[in-house]
Design brief:
194 residues; alpha/beta; eight-stranded mixed sheet; 32% helix; binds guanosine-5'-monophosphate
């Protein structure tokens, strides 16, 4: 999606350790009109899927997921990062290793909000090694809901998550795929997409 690639070139900051900072429009200050365009694009890309729910993970996925959900006219559920886990049977749980914080945490969704009737689109801001998305997919599988696809704003194509998810036959759409980036020069290349 050219609009997003142009915005990353303009306002993105490349940090040491393969981190792309997009705080100016996505992760801290949020450009809701850009999110709206992203939502329309996801709607187009997943038009053939009977999506009735969007699932994301706190915190940075929530803003995008809410705006995307307006394009689909469906509710958003966000997986919560559980500080202390008391498994009382009321929640689905899985584990996620944080790429940015390098630690493992539990995520939970109440059983009230995911069920076998649901057809779910997973939305997140970044795809790196795929841990966050796989954690969300585990919750969907545990609930008996159907995974209809995964929509990502920015995929770092040089990390393993995208290939792993596509190899599983999951319908993955990333609006911008960073092929390479160099924090020493600030250069960034995107994978060309139709
Ligand atoms: P993964 O689980 O795919 O390894 O990493 C995805 C998660 O880590 C996303 O939810 C995102 O919050 C965070 N993340 C991974 N890489 C980056 C990055 O380069 N920049 C930012 N801002 N967040 C990232």
């Amino acid at each position: 999606m050219k609009l997003l690639e142009d915005r990353i070139r303009k306002d993105g900051l490349i940090k040491e350790g393969n981190i792309l900072k997009v705080d100016a429009f996505l992760n801290h200050q949020m450009d809701v009109e850009l999110f709206d365009e992203m939502g329309k694009e996801f709607r187009r890309l997943f038009a053939d899927r009977p999506i009735n729910k969007i699932l994301t993970i706190e915190a940075s996925g929530i803003g995008i997921a809410c705006v995307v959900a307006q394009s689909f006219h469906v509710p958003v559920v966000f997986a919560k990062k559980a500080k202390s886990l008391n498994i009382d049977g009321e929640v689905f749980t899985s584990k996620v290793e944080s790429f940015t914080h390098k630690r493992v945490y539990d995520i939970i969704v109440s059983k009230k909000y995911l069920s076998p009737d649901d057809h779910v689109l997973v939305i997140d801001d970044f795809l790196a090694n795929g841990c966050a998305v796989m954690g969300l997919i585990e919750l969907i599988n545990a609930s008996g809901a159907t995974l209809e696809g995964v929509g990502i704003a920015i995929e770092k194509g040089f990390q393993s998550g995208g290939a792993m998810i596509r190899e599983k036959g999951i319908h993955l759409e990333s609006l911008a795929i960073v092929e390479s980036m160099d924090w020493t020069t600030g250069s960034i290349e995107f994978r060309s997409q139709e």
